[in-house]
Amino acid sequence: MNRSPIGIFDSGIGGLTVTKEIVRQLPYESIIYLGDTARVPYGTRSKEVVASFAKDLANFLLKRNVKALVVACNTISSVALEEIEKMSPVPVIGVVKPLAKKAVNQTRNKKIGVIGTNGTINSGAYEKEIKNIDPEIEIISVGCPLFVPLAEEGLYSHKATKLIAEDYLHNIILAGVDTLILGCTHYPLLKDAIAQILGSGVALIDSAEPTTEELKKILAENDLFAEKNVPTREFFVTDAPERVYQVAGRFFGSEIKDKIKKISLT
Ligand code: DGL
Q1: Which of 23, 49, 112, 241 has minimal CB crowding within 10 Å?
Q2: pTM of the model as a whole
Q3: 42 touches ligand 1 (CB under 6 Å)
């Protein structure tokens, strides 16, 4: 048993979609969330810069004695997971592997679509994971950089979102995939708009549930569950906590009001 918190980090607020599922499935676990809202987006940056920013985030959480690190960001998980693993004395759980595994289990026609930031798509991380499990699967990947600001602005079903989504998803539809990986932690917020365009024949899967399942597996294997415990939940960001509440309060709930604190990483 271990009552130390689980550290969860992201380039901004997207990781809260994963955190919400972790809190739902593991109600006794304490968590510390850290979002780098001062330097978001990471999805447009080079691998070196993402890795260096991500190490700052991991360091902050490791100093607070977390018992595991959840990299709740597809971009960081795609380009810098190895570096985080190298520096971390505690288990590190990324979002790419569990999500790729779920997609492979889900597809019937062996055609999977992947959408994400340009950083995630250009890294080829999902292709690599999927082909490792089943080399016969066809994969079509599309970078959807405008989805992040649309989600942050709360334009979940705005006509601009629909138009942009139609354009981004055109080749995914032509490819006839039956499973689409929402390979960015912001994209679950646009799930309805994406589902409307793709129709019910395409299963949309995101990071929240498979990552939480993987976290549970790792906690069990290392005997790290907190068991019955009154958990603490802390939320840190590197800029604009009020705006974070405005955006994240919509999907995370009012629980985080007044709890989001601004910190400096330097
Ligand atoms: N949270 C990031 C991800 O999952 C998206 C935002 C960003 O570009 O930093 O890829």
Answers
A1: 49
A2: 0.96
A3: yes
